[in-house]
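agent: user wants the structure for Inner membrane protein (DUF1819) from Candidatus Accumulibacter aalborgensis. delegating to structure tool.
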Amino acid sequence: MGVYNAEISAGSLMLPESRRIAALLLTSPSREQWFDALKLDNLLQKKAPATARRQAQLIRKRLETLEEEGLKLIACGSHEVATQLLFAAAIKHSRIFADFLHDVYAGKLRRLEQNLSPAKDWEAFLAECVQRDPDVANLSASTKAKVLQVILRVLAEGRYVDSTKTLRLTPPHLHPDAVCYLKRHGATSVLAIMDMAR
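agent: tool returned. relaying tokens verbatim.
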């Protein structure tokens, strides 16, 4: 695909799994050590190897958007800081997620609306995405639905909505450690998307 891909559909923030993979990446594993950790040690503790592979690949791609300091904060930092940095990594890795936050979520905040209304919001958003990247039109209905489902779960995990049922907007206060990290590493555009409540 061009501008967008549907990779986010492989999973939400997956904090416990991401902590384990961040710790592994900090050891600079060889290709063999990486596959051994997933397969032999079942690092992600999944029943199906294919699921573990797909999720591990997504988590790794997200974590690779961060520096070593970010990996350490995710592996060992507080729940709040680790979650916010995973949220930042998801924004960096997934343009469709970043644009949804910027176009749909921030738009609702500006209009002082209380809730997301996924059916309506998603269709309008996807129509805009098709303008930027015609390939989006070729995504299957089930893939589009899965991408939306994961985006809403990530918003709930990041505390941007109170739950996936009510979808009430609850923009979080960003933790100073997460803000400092993003500023220090020049991720001001990511910070602007995350901190739109101000």
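agent: one observation worth passing along. The first helix runs from residue 15 to 25.
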